[in-house]
Amino acid sequence: MSKVTQGVLGEDIIVPKHVGVIMDGNGRWAKKRGLPRKFGHREGAKTFRAIARHAKAIGISYITFYAFSTENWKRPKDEVNAIMDLFEKYLDEVRDFMDENIRVRFIGDRSMLNPRLQEKMKNVEEDSKDFDAMTLILAINYGGRDEITHAVKNIADEVASGKLSPSDVTENLIQNNLYTEEIPDVDLIIRPSGEQRLSNFLIWQAAYAEYYFTNILWPDFGKKDLDKAIITFSERNRRFGGI
Ligand code: FPP
Question: From CA 97, how far away is CA 52, in angstroms rounded?
Answer without folding.
Answer: 9
